[in-house]
Amino acid sequence: MRLFLRGLLRGLRRGGSQASLLGVDLGNASVRVVELGGSAERPVLQALTCEALDKGVMNDGQVEDFDAAAAALRRAVQRCGTGTRRAALALPAAGVVTQRLSLPAGLTEAALEQRVQAAAQHHFPFAPDEMGLDFCVLGPAEAAGQVDVLMAASRQDRVQDRQGVAEAAGLEPVVLDVEPHAAHRALARIAASLPVGAQADAAGAGPGPAAAVALFEIGAFATLLKLLRGEEVLYARELPVGGAQFTRLIARHCGLGFDAAEQMKLAGTVPAALAPMLQAEFADGLAQELARALRIGLASSPCHDACRIVLAGATAALPGLQACVARLTHLETHVADPFAGMARADGLAAERLAALAPGCLTACGLALRRFHPCC
């Protein structure tokens, strides 16, 4: 049993909370790298790049082809042109188990570690020699003289895979986060950029039950719907729809195999005579699936109302999708832009930024650890 995250966080603290840091998101279909400069109050987007991964390199957040993943990350860092080598990465939620417990207040960090290690053996389904462990103090517990502590554990081999890929690409991993936590950190920036009235609804201000924000994270083969109220996840459901359906549509109309159609989609070389029709057909079909899932989610969750929708993932930028979702749900719908309100370095084209931003919630949230190392 090793306290893998705790040691990495200490490395960040030694460098100071403003030390340069790359946010590295190892996704199933691509590697995304984000570097932020400036300050927490006025962040600056210094670098952003996306490197496609061949099918099978990553699978459900696990590294299947170590050399290919490391090579893709190395290329992404080189394309960024950054000299920063310190990196924040994340594990998928499915690979991390969490548990709260209460411990006596006033314990030293060493004593806390000992108590957490002892408790972890009873709470987590990992053998001690296979478990990576971390913890943080959340604050005072309801019981006097106690503090609430959040423990997080993962299989050590998953941790080592992430660290190894980063190191093989020439980076120094200093933070290992959990993907949903990083994404929610970036989502908080998006919420802060909305009109004041909408923010108040999302935060639960005012009378009556607080409305939820519906977040759709659209991946290649699946879409994750979350109903969020602040940082609380009220409801989550995975839908078997994603950007791969658009690839199959292209393949069918152009007489191509899936891989060739995917390359055409990514390169933006779908024939001009076909592109608008295919985009409209896919956007309408996907929007209907999302609207249906939202109705089910609102009926099943503790909060039966939503004040807005946020679409994330590379597919969210598809022309017409935002309008289709808004029309079918009658809700204010936004395409996620975690870089909204940020200044940006020279050389970051606005058109490319708009296309990449919706898929960068996790990478941006990881890069934000530069300013908030302990959150």
TrEMBL record:
Residues of the SHS2 domain: 21-187
Q: Which InterPro entries match?
A: ATPase_NBD, FtsA/MreB, PilM, SHS2_FtsA
Q: Which Gene3D superfamilies match?
A: 3.30.1490.300, 3.30.420.40
Q: Name one Pfam family in it.
A: PilM_2
NCBIfam families listed in its UniProt record = pilM (TIGR01175)
Q: Spell out the PANTHER family in the cross-references.
A: CELL DIVISION PROTEIN FTSA-RELATED, ETHANOLAMINE UTILIZATION PROTEIN EUTJ
Instruction: Please give the name of this protein.
Output: Type IV pilus assembly protein PilM
